[in-house]
């Protein structure tokens, strides 16, 4: 069962573009795969050409923080465990860096001790839905159920009793999805730095992870990484050290006070 779930996550993650936006039409309206123009050569990233910027802005979703401030927000998608999260947490603890881990129902059931550790060490646990569906294809009531189940499971397991940040599964969203999740008390968190890191059979080494992240570094960055990646685990300490050396400060996503869209 776990193998099937893992393969589903890999395939659906691959469907969510991190560099180019795309859209499909469903009965309830247009659904988008989040994409963006990557930061390159110091130029800030942009979603202006993707067709959904007005929707993201309308619902106060997060794409960028304050680009005048050298703050970085580290986020991880954790749909299942691949043996890398302990190393990532060790590095974050040693470096004093906070993060948010967006977890699924599978993760909270399968890895309760890691979820407890995330909260105990000052990280936020965010919502990645209970069963990782394409939320643009399910009704609002099911969206709320998916989110409530994760929130309640984490509240039962840890001292974190509230949950206000959501990463839509597969990076797929619509105006209705953002409205329904906002009504449920969530801020959707997208990203401004990412690379193809989710395929555990296509890891290319810590140097590749380091180069991929550092080449996109910019003020106000929201970094998306997948905690299943051994490349990320191996590169984490160096990414943190060298980003700090460049004058960047790592902050938790609930410390983001200015949202920018471009």
Summary, kept brief:
By secondary structure, the protein is an alpha/beta fold.
The rounded Rg comes to 17 Å
How many helical stretches? 9
Silhouette: globular
CATH fold topology: TIM Barrel
User: Percentage of helical residues?
Assistant: 25-40%
Extended strand count: 10
Major sheet size, sense and barrel closure: 5 strands, parallel
Order of helices and strands: HEEHEHEHHEHEEHEHEHE
How does the helix and strand content classify structurally?
alpha/beta
Say which CATH homologous superfamily is assigned.
Answer: Glycoside hydrolase/deacetylase
What is the distance, rounded to the nearest whole angstrom, between the alpha carbons of the first and last residues? 42 Å
Strand percent estimate: 15-25%
- Number of folding domains? 1
Uncertain parts: 1-28
CATH class: Alpha Beta
- CATH architecture title: Alpha-Beta Barrel
Mean pLDDT: 91
Could you walk me through the main structural features you see in this protein, from its secondary elements to its overall organization?
By secondary structure, the chain is α/β, with parallel strands linked by helices. It has a single domain, classed as TIM Barrel (Alpha-Beta Barrel). It is built from nine helices and ten strands. Strands 3, 4, 5, 9 and 10 form a five-stranded parallel beta sheet that branches. The protein has a three-stranded antiparallel beta sheet with strand order 1-2-7. α3 (85-95) packs parallel to α9 and α8 packs across α9 (230-245). Mean pLDDT is 91; it is low at 1-28. It is an enzyme of class 3 (hydrolase). It comes from Paenibacillus phyllosphaerae. Residues 70-251 form the NodB homology domain.
């Amino acid at each position: 069962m776990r193998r099937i779930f893992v393969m589903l996550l890999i395939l659906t993650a691959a469907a969510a573009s991190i560099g180019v936006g795309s859209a499909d039409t469903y009965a309830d309206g247009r659904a988008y795969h989040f994409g963006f123009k990557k930061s390159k050569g110091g130029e800030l990233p942009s979603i202006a050409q993707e067709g959904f910027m007005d929707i993201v802005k309308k619902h106060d979703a997060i794409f960028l923080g304050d680009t005048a401030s050298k703050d970085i927000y580290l986020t991880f998608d954790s749909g299942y465990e691949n043996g890398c999260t302990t190393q990532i947490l060790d590095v974050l603890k040693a470096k004093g860096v906070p993060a948010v881990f967006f977890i699924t129902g599978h993760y909270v059931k399968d890895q309760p001790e890691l979820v407890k550790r995330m909260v105990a060490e000052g990280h936020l646990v965010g919502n990645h839905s209970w069963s990782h569906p394409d939320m643009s294809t399910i009704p609002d009531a099911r969206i709320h159920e998916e989110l409530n189940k994760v929130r309640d499971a984490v509240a039962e397991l840890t001292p974190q009793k509230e949950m206000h940040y959501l990463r839509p599964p597969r990076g797929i969203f619509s105006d209705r999805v953002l409205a329904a999740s906002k009504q449920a008390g969530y801020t959707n968190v997208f990203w401004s730095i990412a690379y193809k890191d989710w395929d555990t059979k296509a890891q290319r080494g810590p140097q590749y992870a380091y180069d991929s992240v550092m080449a996109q570094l910019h003020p106000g960055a929201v970094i998306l990484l997948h905690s299943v990646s051994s490349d990320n685990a191996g590169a984490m300490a160096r990414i943190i050290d060298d980003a700090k050396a460049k004058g960047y400060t790592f902050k938790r996503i609930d410390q983001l006070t200015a949202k920018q869209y471009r």
